Amino acid sequence: MPSPSQPTTGGTGVYLDHAATSPVCPEAADAVLHGMSITGNPSSRHDAGDEAKEALDTSRTQMAALLDCTADDVVFTGGGSEADALAICGTVLAAADRRPVHVITTAIEHSAVLESCAMARELGAEITILVPDSRGWIDPQDVRRALRPHTVLVSVMHANNETGVLQPIADIAHIAHEAGALMHTDAVQTAGKISLAGIGADLVSVSAHKFYGPKGVGALKVAPGVRLSPLIRGGSQERGLRAGTENVPGVLGMAAAATAALKHLDDPAYQEHRHALRTHLLKGLEEAGDIAVNGEGAPTLPETLNVSFTAVRGDTLVDVLAVHGICVSAGSACHAGSDEPSHVLTAMGIGAERARSAVRFSPGRTTTLEAVRLAAARTVDVVGKLRALGPADAPQPIHA
Fold this sequence. Notes:
Elements: E1 14-15, H1 26-36, H2 47-67, E2 74-77, H3 80-94, E3 102-106, H4 111-122, E4 126-130, H5 140-146, E5 151-155, H6 169-178, E6 182-186, E7 203-207, E8 218-222, H7 248-265, H8 268-285, E9 291-293, E10 305-309, H9 314-323, E11 326-327, H10 343-347, H11 352-356, E12 358-361, H12 369-389
Parallel strand pairs: 1-11, 3-4, 3-5, 5-6, 6-7
Antiparallel strand pairs: 2-8, 7-8, 9-10, 10-12
Helix pairs in contact: 1-7, 2-7, 3-4, 5-6, 8-12
């Protein structure tokens, strides 16, 4: 049986799709197993219930360290998408006495945010969607210009899930707060990879399976004084913001993964390794010729590299690489199988042909330099063969 820290790709495969999900680390796997041995309901008033509640309290403190907040500010959810929905729709519902209500977001958000904003519109909110520059970066001054007297929330992701481009959340949060609005950021791609300290957001969404925890569990930081209306109603769990008996094994696994991730953030050798992986991967892919890095010129997570290959369909390249044991993605895992070009790349002003030729490579903590070199070499070989099979009227170089 493979180690919990190593993704299963079959044979001698290379897993470079950590932006979609990461393997469960040993610390999280052990914590989940321990959580499954805890019998009681955290809301029950007996010894078994107390044991479960104490386990949740400890996990809440561990998650607070990741989220840069107090334990009382942590609300456990069923994942990042639910955390986004609670932040956005919960804010709009809580502001019912302030109609009209206005929310600002961006065109490059994960679908969890965009769909939550669509739901907020159904609840009566006015929505402004900002467009990034050609690098995929949001100008804080665009946020300032979009503010209205009745703006209650600004929601901008910390790092894009397709390009890895980092957004100036602290600057945007300052602008939002000056106008009396709350700041939400989807930090699903950054939690456990870079520090969340000092970003200034009132609401921060994270998902365990992106930082080597179990799937199906997440958290939302809710700063003191923030008013939210619950979307899931029933019991009074999670300060009345999320009804339902808590997922004790999942929460314990997430908290253990968070603690392990924080140790890596403080490890200079690991930080050097992150950047070395990207450098070697990109250098290898450049051997294919006629490529373009989407998001180039903007600050990015080193773990996410989005590359377009002239005259090659991204989904075809992904499928062929999978046969060779190389696991990559043509974009967000939530839209796998769609023939539509990425909404993120389209919002950046990238044409449909180049957008459809994009592939996302996302190495992780367990990825070696040997693995990225192997993946790059196989990609170059496959790209060459696909181009040789392509039509005579193949498109011009995408970066021309």
